[in-house]
Amino acid sequence: MIDIKEVRENFDSVRKNIGSRGPRSLAAIEKLKQEDEKWRTTKSELDNARFERNKVNHEINGLKKDGKDASKQIAKAREIARRVTELEKRQREEYEAVRMAWLSTPNILDKSVPVGEDEKANKEIKKFGAISSKKVIPHYELTEKAGFIDIERAAKVAGSRFYYLKGDLAR
């Protein structure tokens, strides 16, 4: 997963690197930056509101100790508390948006990786062993031919991509 601190501090270089993967990757990094900025702004507002709430609560305590009327400060504290609750809800929602954008953003590419949108841009460095010309049979076909699984019956009961084990394999 890409380091969000790196995105914040070196956005242009990160954008250029990830943008080399194509327009979807570029859109993902742009969305991450946008969502992160919204979340950080809300977090700052929330921190300021909490500071103000603590300050007003301290004033209320001082007024009550002195035996003075604190009704104006109490009303102000209620309004600030309502604002803090709203900001906390908004911050949670915005953090979830940041998290989803973060998860959809690809990692930074190494300098040795060729530029391209998919694996077609890759270059072959080495080949190991001889390439077989015979047809390879998938494991599910082998086990079905041997009578160890039943794909059709399982698909009727449970849906696709399921199978029943049969015979010695089920024991």
Give the overall form.
Answer: elongated
> What percent strand?
under 5%
What is the strand arrangement across the widest sheet? Answer: 1-2
For the record, give the distance between the C-alpha atoms at the N and C termini, rounded to a whole number.
42 Å
Q: pLDDT below 50 for ≥5 consecutive residues: which ranges?
A: none
Task: Evaluate the radius of gyration.
Answer: 30 Å
Explain what this protein looks like in three dimensions:
This protein has 171 residues and is an all-alpha fold. 65% of the residues lie in helices and 2% in strands. The chain has seven helices and two strands; from the N terminus they run αααααβαβα. The chain has helices spanning 4-9, 11-19, 23-65, 71-104, 139-145, 151-158, 167-170, and strands spanning 149-150, 164-165. A two-stranded antiparallel ribbon has the order 1-2.
List the helices and strands and how they pair.
Blueprint: H1 4-9, H2 11-19, H3 23-65, H4 71-104, H5 139-145, E1 149-150, H6 151-158, E2 164-165, H7 167-170
Antiparallel strand pairs: 1-2
Helix pairs in contact: 2-3, 3-4
List keywords for this structure.
single chain, two-stranded antiparallel ribbon, mainly alpha, 171 residues
